[in-house]
Design brief:
This protein is of the alpha+beta class. The chain has 4 helices and 5 strands, in the order αααβββαββ. About 25% of the residues are buried. About 20% of the residues have low confidence.
Amino acid sequence: MAAAILLAAGLCGARRAEAVAGPRRAQVRGAAGVTDGNEVAKAQKAAPRGAAPTVSWILDRSLPAGVLYEDQQCLVFRDAATQAPVHFLVIPEKPIPCISQVEEEDRKLLGHLLLVAKKTAKAGGLGDGYRFVINDGELGAQSVYHLHIHILGGRQLQWPPG
């Protein structure tokens, strides 16, 4: 129940901030929302060694992240590098570097992350559709080596994505 209240309060605050600052559409670059390649460059420089420091700081609360939801298994917060008007991240508390390194024992956790992502999307007003993205490795443009699910929506998303 407390997690649901935190989610509702966080989303209301996010909507108020958007109302004051204006819609986030202006932050999406290119006709199809394609970035200028910065994420690819970051991914090529990122090293899949150890825990991602930024994520560790968010998890231990030494770096504020505008948490929208949390429970014992995961945390949801707005992405700082938005690629759509609505862009959240769902991260597990467990340090898993990337989706290709999950184990059979992570089955319930992965299901939980997807259910939380779905609930967050619904609570965030994405009833008309959204996209989940999980990047994996350098060629998948993964720039942060802590498993995370991007929830993108709030506009017509293009296909193919890459």
